[in-house]
Design goal:
Elements lengths: L2 H15 L5 H9 L1 H17 L8 H24 L8 H18 L13 H7 L1 H29 L8 H19 L11 H6 L4 H21 L1
Helix pairs in contact: 1-3, 1-5, 1-7, 2-3, 3-4, 4-5, 5-7, 7-8, 7-10, 8-10
Length: 227
């Protein structure tokens, strides 16, 4: 497996599927094929950008085009299968993400250029897979968990509204603190649960916060082990 391309392709996927996929673009995707096409073209752009300095390599170009095309097909199929559903179905959501990651993993075994790692200045951050995984994990504990929680609410608890506004970003904050605290100082992880106190005071779902903090602690410790 080519770790440079796997980590960078995976980063492109997480960036484009979460922080760079606006509410408006998501709504367009659900209603029109044009939205899925735009989303896939954005993915293609980021796949090519994050392939630098090997962007012009024919195998890289073909791989990026293939990943973007398969992403388009998979997203369109998911929309077709869930068109009648209100909100995000947990099973389809998890299967969709698993297949996206699996496809990227398989393509990382293609005859892609052998990476010459640089260890100076910014290039160290760019060429070292760990920093790509760090950004992916940050997206995971913020955007990914936000949608995951919504899919659980919709599928099992029959709650339709997506958490928005202040409590959306408060959730991001409590999970980020838990993630970095457990990554930098694992023995201090228990301090993260202090963020659940405002939820209790404001009568907001404490278990959802507990689940998010626990997942973030696990991911922080996992990333520390991967380092």
């Amino acid at each position: 497996m080519n770790s440079f391309f796997f980590s960078h392709f995976l980063l492109a996927h997480f960036l484009v599927d979460y922080p760079l996929q606006t509410d408006k673009l998501f709504e367009t995707k659900v209603r029109k094929f044009k939205g899925v096409l735009i989303h896939s073209l954005i993915l293609l752009l980021f796949l090519l950008i994050l392939s630098f300095p090997y962007t012009t390599n024919p195998v890289v170009i073909i791989t990026c085009l293939s990943l973007a095309f398969l992403h388009l097909v998979q997203d369109q199929l998911k929309i077709y299968l869930t068109r009648k559903d209100e909100g995000e179905n947990f099973y389809y959501f998890m299967l969709d993400q698993f297949l996206h990651i699996l496809v990227i993993f398989l393509f990382s075994f293609a005859p892609l250029p052998e990476t010459i790692y640089k260890s100076e200045g910014f290039l160290k951050f760019y060429f070292t897979p760990f920093y790509s995984y760090l950004i992916i994990f940050i997206i995971g504990v913020t955007y990914f968990y936000w949608i995951l929680l919504h899919s659980i609410d919709v599928t099992f608890l029959k709650k339709k509204p997506l958490v928005k506004g202040f409590w959306r970003y408060y959730g991001y904050l409590e999970r980020l603190v838990a993630f970095f605290l457990s990554f930098l100082c694992p023995v201090c992880f228990f301090l993260s649960f202090a963020f659940l106190i405002p939820r209790k005071i404001k009568k907001k779902p404490v278990f959802e916060g507990f689940l998010g903090v626990s997942l973030s602690i696990f991911l922080g410790i996992l990333l520390r082990w991967l380092r």
